[in-house]
Design a protein that fits this description.
Layout lengths: L2 E5 L3 H13 L4 E5 L3 H12 L9 E4 L10 E4 L15 H18 L4 E4 L4 H12 L6 E3 L3 H15 L6 E2 L18 E2 L2 E2 L3 H4 L1 E2 L2 E2 L5 H19 L4 H15 L4 E12 L2 E13 L2 E5 L6 H18 L5
Parallel strand pairs: 1-2, 1-4, 2-3, 4-5, 5-6
Antiparallel strand pairs: 7-8, 8-9, 10-11, 12-13, 13-14
């Protein structure tokens, strides 16, 4: 029996609830939103499809209904508009998060929390500083979505199964993110050797343009927003993957946003490096053997986030 609370029933929150239901990850889902009618409608729409899924109770509720939740997913906040950066949202969504924290932690002190709202690294930091919970309980979705976009693009480029692609996006979930290409590989073939090591019908692959791929990853969210108004499918699948790993009995590594304590020379900021997740939350970090210039990029990303944090009332 897995009980999951989702705060915010906009496009992202409701799609996460739907995905959790059809994948059978949750047996009970509580949806909370200031617009209770919206939460009621989304819950009803999902619930009426459950006869063809694993049994799951999906309903709109209040904070009191969240007691016993294994995982709480925070998706509430003002959505990003076309042309707006994630960091432009900072103070407004920090204020919203600060009002939610005492309400939800009162009823769910032992749950693992997944922060999805943007700017996710800033809100994860806010949650760490204001909630009083153990930091291992607090996980920002961070660059897991960026990593998924990177792997999907590399999979298309090399015409190979996404599960054979091993590469990460690290740092801020935003413009200062970067790809540590030195640790990227396709089936253990270093990425910079793939053009000569991978052949189709006797023909070598074209050389990968790193800058073009990174630009694609950074701009994907904005491009989707311009084309359809919002992003919610890929982020929902990514968040449900985090949920699956938190509920599993075997630890999994992924790039999510957590508090830094001296790793790569970075402290007192939340950003994404490779973390170890399991039933105890985010309880470990893996220090990838980054090159000096990659560590410099990670520190630059941390400095960007610190510059924003210093201007906010957290």
């Amino acid at each position: 029996m897995n009980k999951i609370t989702i705060i915010g029933s906009g496009s992202v929150g409701s799609t996460i609830a739907y995905t959790l239901t059809v994948t059978g990850l949750a047996s009970e889902i509580v949806m909370i939103d200031l617009n209770n009618e919206k939460a009621l409608g989304e819950a009803m729409d999902i619930r009426q499809g459950t006869p063809f899924c694993s049994p799951c109770a999906v309903y709109a509720g209040t904070y009191r209904d969240t007691v016993g939740s294994d995982i709480v997913i925070l998706t509430s906040g003002i959505a990003r508009k076309p042309g707006q950066s994630r960091l432009d949202l900072a103070q407004t969504n920090v204020n919203i998060t600060k009002t939610i924290i005492p309400e939800i932690t009162r009823y769910c002190p032992d749950a693992n929390y997944i922060i999805v709202s943007n700017p996710v690294d800033i809100l994860t930091y806010t949650f760490c500083k204001r909630s009083g919970l153990s930091e291992n309980q607090i996980i920002g979705s961070g660059t897991i979505l960026d990593t998924a976009r990177l792997r999907a693009r590399l999979s298309e480029f090399y015409k190979i199964n996404q599960q054979n692609v091993h590469a990460y996006v690290m740092g801020e979930h935003g413009d200062s993110s970067f790809v540590p290409w030195s640790v990227a590989n396709i089936s253990n073939v270093p990425i910079d050797e793939c053009d000569t090591s991978i052949t189709y019908m006797g023909m070598a692959m074209p050389k990968l343009d790193y800058a073009e791929i990174e630009e694609y990853v950074r701009k994907s969210g904005g491009r989707v927003i311009e084309q359809k108004g919002a992003t919610y499918y890929a982020v929902s699948v990514s968040v449900c993957y985090i949920v699956k790993c938190l509920l599993g009995s075997v630890d999994t590594t992924m790039t999510v946003s957590t508090m830094m304590h001296g790793e790569y020379g970075i402290s007192d900021v939340c950003l994404s490096i490779l973390n170890v997740l399991g039933s105890e939350g985010a309880h470990g970090k893996i220090m990838l053997p980054l090159k000096d210039h990659e560590i410099a990029l990670l520190r630059k990303s941390a400095d960007c986030l610190r510059g924003v944090i210093d201007q906010l009332d957290i």
